[in-house]
Amino acid sequence: MKYLIFGNGYIGNKFKDALGGEAVISGVDIADYQAVKQELAQQKPDAVINCAGKTGKPNVDWCEDHKLETISSNVAGPLTLLRACGEEGIYWAHVGSGCVYTGDNGGKGYSEDDAPNFFGSFYSRTKAWSETMLKEFPVLQLRLRMPVDDTPGSRNLITKITTYKKVISTPNSVSVLEDFLRASLVLIGKRSTGIYNMTNPGGITHAEILDMYREIVDPFFAYEIFSLEELGAVTKAGRSNCVLSSDKRESAGAHMRPVREALRATLQTYKANLHRV
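The chain above was modelled as a monomer; its predicted structure follows.
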């Protein structure tokens, strides 16, 4: 089985690590139809995994000032892959985002059938646009959200929030990457299509994560809480805070551990890796 991964970034390289020699990473612009076609012809993959897209650096506020670049990567790019892979008859999976909702849907979490209801950032709007278009076709869409892994790094939610002086205390769904990758490959192996929430079951606040961090990693760590209103005063774009339902994915046999169990295990390894950096 040969996989071609588009996007030589954080998530693309995590998939490459998980797949080893079965995968090749491409850094071509996914909005460039000719470049994509050439890559498909050269690599002849059995399946494609798209991990390319703009999330903004250092955060999604970047997308507010770089709208054309964001559309090119987050909307035009996936549609180009849809066309190119369709022409070649190649199965493909697209890593999307769960940051298209706000709230917890009355405690149930948002399912894959619920229409997006968060439009407070340009980034989230582009993700909702591409998702809506792709769901008309036989594409697997993997909704990733606030990725967490056991290695310190700028894209890791643990590393991010431990650098903040203040955090919000609102329940959110997160994706522990060990579980996300394993569950995603189960769905890809089954040639599943449609949208799946790829988040660990349950919601957790940033404050709860930091309390766990203090317990496991650094007993002297301290932080403060601030409100969503205070957060909104210092960011250019709104932030999605939401909890997603895991029912569809779990029913498909693509299991992910409950969020607190997964985070506790991840933080144990994160502590060991932190001392190796």
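The chain is about 45% helix and 15% strand.
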